[in-house]
Target: 3-methyl-2-oxobutanoate hydroxymethyltransferase
Amino acid sequence: MSERKDRVTVARLQKMKREREPIAMLTAYDYPTGQLAEASGVDVVLVGDSLGMVVLGYESTVPVTLEDMVHHTRAVRRGISRPLLVADLPFLTYRLGVRDALQAAGRLMQEGGASAVKMEGGRDLAPTVKACVEAGIPVMGHIGLKPQAVHQTGYRIQGKTEQSVRELVDDAEALTEAGAFAFVLECVTEEAAQTISESVPVPTIGIGSGRQCDGQVLVFHDVVQFSVNGFRPSFVKTYADAGETVLSGLAEYVRDVKNRRFPQEQHVFHGKSAVYGGTKR
Ligand SMILES: Nc1nc(=O)c2c([nH]1)NC[C@@H]1CN(c3ccc(C(=O)N[C@@H](CCC(=O)O)C(=O)O)cc3)CN21
Ligand SMILES: CC(C)C(=O)C(=O)O
Model:
């Protein structure tokens, strides 16, 4: 574990905004991706419910359960110590009433080891956010494109009209007022992101929302293209081709087995009794 003083806290993120130091956030879903995220130097690790799409193979984030999130958050927790660990509350778990939201958030923290939770929504969530914060649960908001609402709205860029920007600012202000320590701005225009980021004292973490946010977040599998011809939104920049590298290694392994080039002498254990004649069956 890294020194306690090293750890990224909610207060540190807010100081970064004041000092205009960009915040780097990345998703992770298990122990190795958590370890890689930490080693990269990110400030915040998000166990996103994008889990459902990039790891579990669902078509949207809607089927992801609280059990899924707890299970994966625990694994990421074991892989990281310095970054702030934020876990997503899945579809509906924070909309059945404040009591249920507190209970769900509590599980992500107590069983999953998260240091904060994230939930999708604006003004409508202010009472929920307030109750969590009063209970000692730091909340990251999430406005703009809300993937959990895909069946209602599709995946559409937000903040294109003045009216839409006004509503986003209202949401951001209401969430800040309720005590959210930061929020994700997903797929809003760069102009909207600038207006929102200037309207609130807490950091905005953008995804597909341009250069004026206080930080950026991307999905792990998008950054390193860890998939075989997977879906890739246009706002993503790919920094490595992990899918291709991994696939070519795996294919070579299979070829070696088929051609009896693996295993070789250095991969083998010997005893005293057995006699190996050196011929193949
Ligand atoms: N691999 C992956 N990366 C993500 O960023 C991501 C997920 N999965 N799953 C959960 C949500 C869903 N997200 C999405 C999904 C679709 C679009 C999309 O279709 N965007 C279009 C723009 C749409 C428009 O023009 O209105 C694009 O071209 O990027 C964007 C974000 C972001 N999240
Ligand atoms: C894309 C990020 C912000 C997210 O919410 C997720 O990974 O689920």
About this structure: The longest helix spans residues 162-178. Residues 50, 53-54, 61, 145, 147, 155-157, 187, 219, 221-222, 231, 233-235 surround 5,10-methenyl-6,7,8-trihydrofolic acid (ligand 1) (CB under 6 Å). The chain has one domain: 4-244.
